[in-house]
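Consider the following input, taken from an annotated entry for Putative ABC transport system permease protein (Larkinella arboricola).
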Amino acid sequence: MLRNYLTIAWRNILKDKFYSLINILGLTIGVTCGLLLLLYVTDELSFDRYHEKRDRIYRIVSNITEPDKINHWRDTQAPLAKTLRQDYPFVENYVRFFPYGRVMFRRGEKRFYETDVYAADSTVFDVFSYTFIEGDPKTALDRPGNVVLTQTTARKFFGNQPALGQSLQTNDTTFYKVAGVIEDVPKNSHFTFNALFALGPNERQADYWGNFYVVSYLLLPENFDTKILESKFPQLYEKHMASIFQRMGIKITYELQPLTKIHLHSKLDGEAGGDIGYVYTFAAVAFFMLLIASINYMNLSTARSAKRAKEVGLRKVMGSLRKALMAQFLTESVLMTVLALTASLIFVALLLPFFNTVSGKEIQFRELLQPQFLLIALAIVVFTGFISGSYPAFYLSSFEPATVLKGSFNAKGGSFFRKTLVVAQFSISLIMLICTWIVYQQLNYMRNKDLGYDREQVLTVDYQDGQPRDRYNALRTALLTNPNIRSVATASSPTSNIGGRVIFAVESNTGLKEMGFKPMGIDHDYLKTMGMKVVSGRDFSADIPADTTNGVLINQAAVKRMGWTEPLGKKVLLGGLPQAGQPSPPTAKVVGVVKDFHQQSLYSPIEPMIMVYRPNNGVVHIKIDAKNADKTVAFIGQKWRETYPDRLFEYRFLDQDFESAYRADELRGRVFTAFSTLTILIACLGLFGLATFTTEQRVKEIGVRKVLGASVSNVVFLLSKDFTKLVLFSFPIAIPVAWYSMDRWLQHFPYKTEIGVGVFVMACALTLFICWITVIYQSLKAAVANPVKSLRSE
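Applying the prediction step yields:
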């Protein structure tokens, strides 16, 4: 029986090739998009799941509550994890990562900068699952002076030769022995590194509870109730931290984040990761694309109902049961879906490199061949095949044989249902179009918002240690001989990524008060180089040496926080309040107020900050002219190498740093835009199917109208009017849903664009225009047809 169904289904597909092509094309687009989005979602959900003990690993998160602000940091104090292991036996193990940042390694003449370098406890390979290529994970980091490299890092220095036991030198002339080489940390990891040092004396002896700079993880028993450990944290604060923070009104608590939830669920200050909201969104988009493709099949199948009515009548007369007819039509839809799936797998293979570029992923085609993915593909076939074939099967099998064989069959039945499906299609498409529009409005807003400084044509170079900075003045003098270099300055951190907070004692209305501020060391050229404005007082001056100890600059946010009406002259202790037996920190006064500028991306609000005058800092900022930029950069590189012959010259532009902060949302926006466009395309195919159905059923009516004098434009307007109504019906459905969704999405941004009426007007107008373009072909075809042919049988 099944073979018979398949044979008939195949013949029907070949019988009307154009109809079949349109049907398969719509299903292919839907299934292809569904598979690509499914790959994206699967990759997002796979983060950190390759670790064998993934369900037992937790990251410690610090919640710092100040009198006027709550901070959520991934960093903890160095002794925290170690203390938890010692005090609570149910903590089975711990790992800490101490950041080294960007380090220059050298071996002979080979020198490379490596980013994401850390020192780690030797337990790292007991807790996390990393594959060793060389070395023993049990002893790799058990002694100071050892280093473990990733495979890519090892190949830079040793090629395909064994690296185990070889030596590498760092900036500060320290030699490290390669004690292990591991496979590169998988891309689907929330935390990556290129090299791990064994803990040195400084890290091993770190026991101060006042600094937050270490990333800490715990290994807990299976099915452990984390609330048991979290209930112990207040005791920890009283025992180790109250003496440091309580006098400042600062409370510190911790929470435990399951490893597998960090990427998608963590929303910590300054941490860029995934977003479970996007996973839900893309999963919904995949579902709706399959649904819209199924709706297309329904519309196109019912559009051919008149052609198949006699077939159904004859088969019923010959004794065919209704359930057999339904099985036949369902077989056709499933076969169509199987053909679409086959084509989709080919398209996915061809489009995957492009999709990876657009989405920023590194998905391999072999992931399509995984058993779980093949099962999902089979489920898509079943779902799409039965959903798309259900209504045609029910509708076509319901024809009365006597009616259709007499020739009095009217195929207009079910038109309300078909029109409802089209309204649903265009409602979904319009929602996606509006959302895409607002996403790009927000991204453009963040790109173009005034940051409080000029990021264009600012080149930055990082020092790697303090030794070469005493030659900075020589470098600056040499650079300024080039007329294309406008200004040179130093700062303690990049302008686009100023770090954490430091405690200062600041004059308030009730005396000196300890509070946390973002600190920054700058020289007297920094504000000029960055185009920042002093709104009150003055800038630092090289002619006033006392500025190095007696002067500070603050931003407007600091003035607002302190409630000052006249900030100039206010006292600031460059540290906390003096404690018994400790020397008093230097006392400075506010000499100027700088207009607020964004110290990080627009995902973070502007924070109160204090700038201190330091002649030499860790980051060099160089403002250059746009003309002859390549030659100017080459000149800078030459002077850098002359000044620091033992240092590599590596630079970046500040606007590139700024753009990289939004890269994740930019990539998601591209994916969303691409699939929004394809959703509209699939919806247009559905509209084309309904236009085909309508013109087929009204061909005699159109013939009569033309005989009675109706013009082509009259007929086109008549047919287009009905479709226009359908699209117009989608507007009041789509607009509230899109507005609500995007309003909630924008709440995640401290600085956001406004959702204007223009977005909805333009999106609706574009949708209506696309509708008219879609139906005009069928309308014109019917309007210019010879009425004699349509009326010949009357």
